[in-house]
């Protein structure tokens, strides 16, 4: 049971919370754009300073090869469990800029939501835990559990340096469980505990043809066009049904039992809901699965970007010298991103005509995860959602990717409670990203209750978690989720 | 026979000619980019002023709906033929800028060539005629023929306003023949008289999917990706052999006789030469034809540009809301660009899946032409080439498109001598465009001799041209070139 004064402290100053979140959102901490590297660093420093201000004693900005990690801890509850709260303060590029109603890094509140790049993914969600911790420290002067905060600046580029950091700092990060708020609920009144995430493999493919752009009058019809080859190769990566047409791609996909699918179907968004959230006229994809299943228990390949030749106004009579595509796979257990990359390379080497060169560069790779939903941390999280949102959460898998969850599972040996406060139409990764203010405050309340629930476990119980965890590992290898 | 003092005047001041050409090349007269509209106008005014300075009495800058036409005439040779000299002072966009060794609009001379956007296409080539006229006016005080100069600022966007201008001003433009230098010779010592040009049809295709970019984790696998649809549609527009896979596309292609093909093969570039000029490792395209034939007597479809989604550094996990492709057809007699557009629209409407929208916008359209190479103007041009380059020209068709040639043929009823001074590796439409200085001066000498040759025809002979022309029209309808 949460102390009422903690909740009151957290929720009676909404204006201050919004002002602080706006400060956080104002940093264009776009991790993928080298021009924003300084902004990412400034954002990390602001975040660290903010954590110090709310009373955390041990706050560090830890440099990596690219963007820094912000780490903080409070270990004033010996004998209580330790919780690792992860979030990311980097954001997706804001482009296309012309489609934003208000500037992406000038946050505004409109219709009960705060609009800015990163509002939902993940600054706004991450902020709920900061406000919960602040409320405890400013009222009780202590937290019900030990906490370690790990906020990274590279999630949107596939966490290239975080996994090494986790490996090298297992003692620093030693905890009983992790908590992450970086996922979505199916709808406003339907919270969800996410027990599975798709993995990711992000690649850049380049097709090179003639040494320089050619006049399409002088050479059109006689020289193979890199753009055309790129289209042919990409078109060939799906069969007409919408399945990925890379031999071997589905071989290691772990089947999901009919029972598990039925159980999920009760709580999962219907096709109509998925389409409404996508604002798309109709669905597409692999036959035999609902739209929700296609984005959770089935893998996918998406072309994220394609460019080559002339894209300005009017026409330009050229055969471009090269063309580039950005691709990303979303993978499910037990697909291994490195193996999928090898399969793609084999397919490309078979399908590349002798007229052009094709090269592939990996941008990031992340393993898929499925967590054992019977783990006690999920019960604590479910009770927290009930307190924050007045509803029991559904257990669902998500289509997204959070690379660190697999690292927590395999390196630290701990589960992660994916307690998301976003909504499917928050337009994350898209123009006009926003986060419901209601969810900001319900999220804070949920976090406060979650810390309280976790605090009620004693060390003996914690040990039982660890034993459970060992069982879980066995189950992971043996069965289906 | 050209008067020696005319040649001497033209060729003994190379430094001045180069300085003037550099001034002309410094204008970024990029017709397709609205941001350069003022530069196009400034370039037109400079050109007009230059024509006045060399002594032409009647110079006009004629506004159109977009970029102005520069017109000038000298009609001081009554009873002599009239020659319409056409060129274009607009240029292609200079992008990609990073690939230029020196800035595209800061002309420099390097290794015997002048480097700048427009150096070969078409400012440098157009300039040869201006220098030839100047040499006559400054030495003899007169020209051997009447001339009308027509320099447009919209060739690179498909001459949208010139055809209407020609239609409305048939009296102003009334001439016995046209002369254009806007094509290439097969190699340095091998001039070519071009007797055929491919037509063009330039289009922008847009595929639209969801109302805004979607997170590819949340939706990848369930929502059709406009980029993927675009790739599938574009890949389907060629069959695996390299033929255009639009039903009916080849129906109106006029066959070329085996004799005509053999005759051309003797003078045409070999496959190896085409590849050398393209700096491409090997050829591609429609089976049964040489590379030169594929770009001259056969039509082609080229993707000139493709863009959608994320093209910046790193990855971005999105399904983009839309994707755009720039396409252009090169057409041969008797293909009609408007009919080809209808065929494409039919094909697209059959191949567009119900998950997306596809729209098509025409950017420009031009008819293909074949000229009767027995016309006497070609004999005059051949003698001019002999004088300027010391070699008889080959008779070849070109793969390029000059929209106005069809208008001269059908509206004014006159043939065009396509007396090109470019080379296949001038990198027109590409970074590091350049023009050989040797060809600039040999071009001036050729133009001087051509005007002289044309001046030797008397009015009786001119009348015979016109009768020939009537025959030609009949032949055009009936036979093959």
Main attributes?
481 residues, homodimer, Aminopeptidase, 9-stranded mixed beta sheet, alpha+beta, 15 helices
Summary?
The structure is a homodimer of 481-residue chains. Chain A has 481 residues and is α+β, with helices and mostly antiparallel strands.
Number of helices of chain A: 15
Write down how many β-strands of chain A occur, each being a DSSP E stretch of 2 or more residues. 18
Helix share of residues of chain A?
25-40%
Count up the domains of chain A: 2
CATH architecture of the largest domain in chain A: 3-Layer(aba) Sandwich
Considering the protein shown, what is the CATH homologous superfamily of the largest domain in chain A? Answer: Zn peptidases
Task: List unreliable stretches of 5+ residues of chain A.
Answer: 472-481
Largest interface: A-B, 104 and 104 residues
Principal-axes geometry of chain A comes out as: globular
Distance between the termini of chain A: 31 Å
Q: Can you give the mean pLDDT of chain A?
A: 93
